Amino acid sequence: MKIKVYVPSDTTARSLGADKVAAEIQLQAARKGVEVTVIRTCTRGLYWLEPLIEVDTDKGRIAYGPVEQSQVQSLFDADFLSGGDHPLGLGMTEQIPQLANQQRRMFSRLGVTDPISLEDYRAHGGVAGMQKALELTSQQIVDEVKASGLRGRGGAGFPTGIKWQTVLDCDDDEKYIVCNADEGDSGTFADRLVMEGDPFALIEGMAIAGLAVGAEQGYIYLRCEYPLAEKILNKAIAIAYREKLLGDDLLGSGKRFHLEVRLAAGAYICGEETSLLESLEGKRGLVRAKPPLPAIEGLFGQPTVVNNVLSLTAVVDILANGGEAYQALGMERSRGTMPFQLAGNIKCGGLVEVPFGVTLRELLYDYGGGSASGRPIKAVQVGGPLGAYLGDSQFDTPMDYEAFAAIGAVLGHGGIVVFDDTVNMAEQARFAMEFCAEESCGKCTPCRIGSTRGVEVIDKVIAGTEREKNLTLLADLCDTMEVASLCALGGMTPFPVRSAVQKFPEDFVAEVK
Ligand SMILES: Cc1cc2nc3c(=O)[nH]c(=O)nc-3n(C[C@H](O)[C@H](O)[C@H](O)COP(=O)(O)O)c2cc1C
Ligand code: SF4
After folding, report:
1. Cβ < 6 Å from ligand 2: which residues?
2. Which residues are bridge partners to 314 per DSSP?
3. Widest CA span of the chain, in angstroms?
4. How much distance in Å is there from the Cα of 276 to the middle of ligand 2?
5. How many beta carbons lie within 10 A of that of residue 318, not counting itself?
6. DSSP H/E element including 213
7. Cα–Cα distance measured from residue 228 to residue 98, given in angstroms and rounded to the nearest whole number
8. What is the dihedral of CA 106, 209, 218, 173, to 10 degrees?
9. In what order do the strands lie in the sheet with 53-57?
10. pLDDT tens digits, one per residue of 259-283
11. pLDDT in tens, 34-88
């Protein structure tokens, strides 16, 4: 029997040499006359161990990592194909502490399956959600999602079931499902991992959304910086059409759902749902005023569900295992699990899927192992470039939408970017304003002009020019941007700026070198 060796093939693992490692394993096996099947999977999200390779043994999968091409020979010498001892040995993959302590629901197949094998997908619980959805009425599907307590994972945390109900209640003939795969937040990669590592889950989730609201056409709006995800999604979509997970006759039910990928131009504002819809319609990505909500007048003026990749993926598990099982996890009004993404100056960066309620400190130290530099962690930005900077005194806050709102912060898409004590927070505040100036769609004055003036004011503070007066001016500008901007880009830029001024005042009194 051929021995199975799993080597990840996602963007991260590849950038760290996984392709070379896979080729070297094939080469060495051929030289030694050993029969080996190399299966290309996806990362398990343990980035500091990539490329992490796994061998199928009687006991289960045994992991080695991070493996360099030059170390493959020594792995063979140590009989790694039977799980032999080697300095890179990590034991059973599932028992690596940072993985064992997670509760993976959206990412249960990540790194386990071959992403473009529908057979593998089915063998690991895939398609059960769609089968269940086909037995239910549209209203029953929506009720199941409502019962789960799922809130949108794209940033705003709006209840998915309520959004779907709004679209279901519209009696238009034409409706759409749009997947927001623009993933523009700093330090985030969970959407990409779904698309590269478990694409059928997104396809299935979108088809379920279509059945739920009566939509027969879906679009995945994918950022063009994700070329591998595009390739994998298109392969998986072709297979899904062949196997009736998509098309005119879903699993022989006579129900229809069609899906295609559309590439995004790569502007942060195109992740905002109305701007995204403009872009999908072939226009410049300008924010639309709400109301009307996209759920009522969305793509081409028709009722449209716009959901993040993770929200749509979560629905697969919710339909397969029931809304109540999902609702049983989490805290308060934040139910289920959330894939947190650890990035920046962190020792063990990567994906951590756990129920809401875990504290930031647990994520930073128990899962993340502290800073990569070994220096004290000074600041953490949670929720992307518009999220507040948090200091040590806030690290015990539970990861919960409301608990974060109470400290003037947001969870956003679950991105956590870590900075050690060498960071200068005045520079970070300037960066936040500059980011807004750079990415503003230009539709409203507080954001378009305010962010540019904001950079100038922070520059004066940094240079020590009438510091107190300019800090007051900056505070006023932040208030104006928050209350008068049309969308959250201008409206939330004050979050990182204010938090930097308030939490780290010492960085605003000394000149930046
Ligand atoms: C400036 C800006 C950028 C955004 N970028 C994204 C994004 O990249 N991906 C995403 O899913 N949502 C993004 N959102 C949130 C979307 O507007 C929208 O709330 C989300 O796609 C709805 O899906 P959900 O309910 O499943 O979260 C962004 C919002 C704003 C204001
Ligand atoms: S806040 Fe900025 S990005 Fe949003 S609509 Fe106004 S100008 Fe455009």
Report:
1. 269, 287, 440-444, 447-448, 485-487, 489-490
2. none
3. 76
4. 13
5. 29
6. helix 199-213
7. 26
8. -170
9. 36-41, 3-8, 53-57, 60-64, 89-92
10. 999 999 889 999 999 999 999 999 9
11. 999 999 999 999 999 999 999 999 999 999 999 999 999 999 999 999 999 999 9
Q: What is the pLDDT of residues 209-236, one digit of tens each?
A: 999 999 999 999 999 999 999 999 999 9
Backbone angles phi, psi at 372, to 5 degrees: -70, -30
Coil/strand/helix, residue 14: helix
Specify the amino acid at residue 226: Y
DSSP string, 295-344: TTS-GGGS-EEEEEHHHHHHHHHHHHH-HHHHHTSEETTEESEEEEEEEE
CA angle 466–439–193, rounded 5-degree value: 125
Q: What is each CA distance from 61 to 27, 136, 240, in whole angstroms?
A: 22, 38, 28
Question: Position 314: which residue type?
Answer: A
Q: Looking at the CA of residue 151, tell me the nearest atom of ligand 1.
A: 25
Name the pTM for this structure: 0.97
| Ligand 2: centre distance to CA 448 (Å) | 7
- CA dist 153 and 298 (Å) reads 19
Contacts of 513 (CB under 8 A, 6+ apart): none
Contact status, residue 400 vs residue 338, Cβ threshold 8 Å: no
d(CA 208, CA 214): 10
Angle at 178 between CA 145 and CA 273, to 5 degrees: 100
**Does residue 49 sit in helix, strand or coil?**
helix
371: which 2 tokens? 């800073």
Residue carrying structure tokens 């994520």:
363
For ligand 1, atom 7: residue with the closest CA = 271
Q: How many residues comprise the chain?
A: 513
Q: How far is the CA of 151 from the centre of ligand 1 (A)?
A: 12
